[in-house]
Amino acid sequence: MPELAEVEFYRKRWQSSAARASVVDVLLHANKRLFRGIDPKKLRRALRGATFVGSEARAKQMLFRFRGETSAAGEIYLGIHLGMSGELRVEPAGYAPGRHDHLVIVTTATRSRIRPPLRQTAGRTGVPAAVPAHALVFNDPRMFGRILFHLGAKPPAWWTGIAPAILSDEFTVDVVGQFLQRRKRAPIKAVLLMQERFPGVGNWMADEILWRAAIHPARLAGSLAEAEIRRLHHECRHVCRIALATIAGRGPKPPPDLNVDIPDSWLFNHRWRKGGKDPITGTPLAHATIGGRTTCWSPARQKR
Fold it and tell me: Strand ranges (DSSP E) for the chain?
């Protein structure tokens, strides 16, 4: 399932093509479960003619904001959760949607709605130039993702209710320690996957955090000493930073695809290799189901 950095990667992919664009058409599979709880026809009507305003990523969700042709109803909020197999792509405007392309938003440059740009061809002026256009595609073969929609002057509760980011000032050592005590009988691996306190952390990030903090994933959350809680807090923030910088890209545009060059010093590169070894100790890695998820750790480094 896409985690914090992968979600930011896909947000940037749409953002880089949607900036300063207006929506000219919306294609969707209205009967698919991705649209559960919303009216697809209302979504289509609201987006047509709207102008892209901006986007954000929080935890494992994205929010794309549009403004309609009249501002009376406020902004249009389009939420996307990728689920397990969802991805966002950008295609040419004439793209024909495939079987698993459940939402396609065709955009064109906003400035063309005001005055078409001019070009000079063979001594003639006043001929409209080609209008930049793209198709923003949400593809989800397994349909575990979800599309959310809201019209209003303020962001919806399904967005504002997301827990404070791990890189925010609200994510403190004390907050983490208190949460671990409330979940003290649960394995720490399972607790790290709880989005109400660790938003955006998924399976690979949890394994990476615990490996760097030298904490066994099966340890009960309430058994961690103060020094271990501090290490856990530090590594949560550190892994989020390096994942965002490496996977999502440092600049305004993401890398061209998710096949980025992950350093061999990360557990990430070794956790599923046959005969994989701890990149620090060189000792064999172990695997088991902990907290309902397949987990990788280093017995030499993460002692029970």
Answer: 21-28, 51-58, 61-67, 75-81, 87-92, 101-109, 118-121, 124-128, 133-139, 146-152, 286-290, 293-297
Residue 35 confidence (pLDDT): 94
For residue range 205-256, what is the model confidence (pLDDT) as tens digits? 999 999 999 999 999 999 999 999 999 999 999 999 999 988 887 665 666 6
Q: What are phi and psi of 17, to 5 degrees?
A: -100, -25
Nearby residues of 171 by Cβ (< 8 Å), 6 or more positions away: 164, 165, 233, 236, 237
Asked whether residue 49 carries a pLDDT value surpassing 60, the answer given is: yes
Alpha-carbon distance 21 to 32, whole Å?
27
pTM above threshold 0.70: yes
3, with CB counted inside 10 A (0-12, 13-18, 19+), is: buried
Instruction: Encode burial over 227-247: b for 16+ CB neighbours within 10 A, e otherwise.
Output: ebbebbbebbbebbebbbebb
